[in-house]
Amino acid sequence: MALSVLVVDDSSVMRSIVIRTLRMSGLELNEVLQAGNGKEALEILGKTWVDLVLLDINMPVMNGIEMIESIRKIPELSDLPMIVVSTESSTTRIDTLKQRGIGFVHKPFTAEMLRNSVIQLTGVTVNETTSDGSF
Length: 135
Known about the structure:
Blueprint: E1 3-8, H1 12-24, E2 29-35, H2 38-47, E3 52-55, H3 64-72, E4 82-86, H4 91-99, E5 103-106, H5 111-122
Parallel strand pairs: 1-2, 1-3, 3-4, 4-5
C-alpha cells in the first residue's frame, strides 16, 4: 500500500530531509504534503486524506502537541497514525506520546530508524524493488 504522508515542521530544510529520507527508505509513497506548523497541517487535513503524519513538536503558531490534541478530537482523524520527529529529550514527554499511540523518532535520525517507526506504526511493508538496502 502506498502511503500518503503529511510532513509538518517549521524548517523547510528539515521537511526536505524527512521527505528525502522517506523516499530512500524503500517505503512505497503516494502523495507527500508539507506544512510549516500545526495550523497549516490541520487545514490540509481538512481537505486531503493522508495515511500518516510526521511532525515536529517545537513550531510557531501551533506546536506539535497542540496539533496532536486537535487531531485526536476530530472523529474522522482520531486514529490517524502520527510520528513525532524531534530533538525532544524529555523522557516523560516521549513516554506520554508513546502511551497515546504516537511514534517517536529522535533527530538526528537515519533512514532505517524512520522506516522502522513507520512500519511499526502503520504495518506497511518495504517495497524491495525501490530499496537497495543501504542507508
